[in-house]
UniProtKB/TrEMBL annotation:
InterPro entries: Gfo-Idh-MocA_inositol_DH, Gfo/Idh/MocA-like_OxRdtase_C, Gfo/Idh/MocA-like_OxRdtase_N, MI/DCI_dehydrogenase, NAD(P)-bd_dom_sf. SUPFAM superfamilies: Glyceraldehyde-3-phosphate dehydrogenase-like, C-terminal domain, NAD(P)-binding Rossmann-fold domains. Residues 2-123 form the Gfo/Idh/MocA-like oxidoreductase N-terminal domain. It is an enzyme of class 1 (oxidoreductase). It comes from Ohessyouella blattaphilus. This is Inositol 2-dehydrogenase/D-chiro-inositol 3-dehydrogenase. The keyword Flavoprotein does not apply.
Length: 334
């Protein structure tokens, strides 16, 4: 059994603990911690986690913890991940890997120093059956080369304290990873645009925004980003290829016919939309750790998304595409 410690006992932390305890073979959650100790205590009681640590650092250093799952606040990911890698421990870190490209570079440097991959980043969309099938079709070449991606990310709600820049670093970060993965290409330029604002969005941050990207081989990507006040949680993606298009399927839903109307229920919760992807993702991570061969999204993938996010946020208000400049890719991630 892989003995796992979980840092962060909020909504996604609880979901991951439940998966690891009851759904993922070969996993055992032996400890948890949270910035708010009472949250960790309640979570431990809920799932019978044997040990609660006062801090994430104590959990990382605990001898019984073989691997660490990080589901805490975004600004804590870097320090916890780096601390675990320095001890040679396996890490599953929810997105983003860090808030800046320079922090990601520190993690990469330490992982290279260790001489092996130790980090997987929680870009769960790669494990969604719909996206996986799209990738399979693109890679087969049957539709020719991919030319463009049209995508949208529409959300219902954001917590207090949300800021415009977080629309990129916390929300659109998924599109930054999945589009790069689908195309198998690095980004070259990036720009974010402020468009006509929704009258429903009066919370002080830009909503909606448009994300524009260009890859090294000239493919173009546009992403409509509504971080709040949309009609539901709606993720759309279309890849335009030389010989046809590929569309991400909507989640399965029954069609109701009543009162002269035909309707389909829409989701409002990201956890339900990608529940299967999360299940597959964590099972794959535990299995890969046991084999000593991580194959999921790496520190480099977390870095690439962060570099693009940095460029996008710098471009805001400039009406200019900014170059995306990355360090040389270490052989560890080839």
């Amino acid at each position: 059994m892989l003995k796992i410690g979980v840092i962060g006992c909020g909504a996604i932390g609880k979901e991951h603990i439940k998966r690891l305890m009851y759904l993922v073979p070969g996993a055992q959650v032996v400890a948890c911690a949270d910035f708010y100790p009472e949250a960790a205590q309640k979570t431990a009681a809920m799932f019978q986690v044997p040990t609660v640590y006062q801090t994430g650092e104590e959990l990382i250093g605990a001898s019984e913890v073989e691997a660490v799952v990080i589901t805490s606040a975004d600004d804590s990911h870097f320090a916890y991940t780096l601390a675990a890698v320095k001890l040679g421990k396996q890490v599953f870190c929810e997105k983003p890997l860090a808030l800046t490209a320079s922090e990601c570079e520190e993690i990469i440097a330490e992982e290279v120093k260790q001489g092996r991959r130790l980090v997987q980043v929680g870009f769960m969309r790669r494990y969604d059956p719909g996206y996986a099938k799209m990738k399979e079709i693109i890679d087969s070449g049957e539709l020719g080369a991919p030319l463009m991606i049209h995508a949208c990310h529409r959300n219902v709600f954001q917590s207090e304290g949300f800021q415009t820049e977080m629309g990129i670093t916390n929300v659109a970060i998924h599109e930054l990873d999945i589009c790069r993965w689908l195309l198998g290409d690095e980004y070259k330029k990036a720009q974010v645009l402020k468009v006509k604002q929704s009258g429903r969005s009066t919370k002080g941050y830009d909503n909606p925004q448009i994300v524009l990207l260009e890859t090294e081989d000239g493919s173009r990507i546009d992403v409509e980003l509504q971080v709040c006040d949309a009609y539901g949680y709606d993720i759309q993606c279309q890849v335009v290829c030389e010989k046809g298009t590929i569309n991400l399927p909507d989640p399965a839903s029954v069609i109701m016919r009543a009162e002269a109307r035909c309707s389909t229920e829409l989701l409002t919760d990201w956890a339900k939309r990608f529940i299967e992807a999360y299940d597959i993702e964590l099972a794959d991570w535990v299995n890969a750790v046991e084999k000593g061969e991580l194959t999921g999204p790496s520190s480099w993938d977390g870095y690439a998304a962060c570099v693009a996010a940095d460029a996008l946020n710098r471009s805001r208000g400039t009406e200019t595409f900014l170059p995306i400049e990355m360090i040389e890719k270490p052989g560890l991630y080839q």
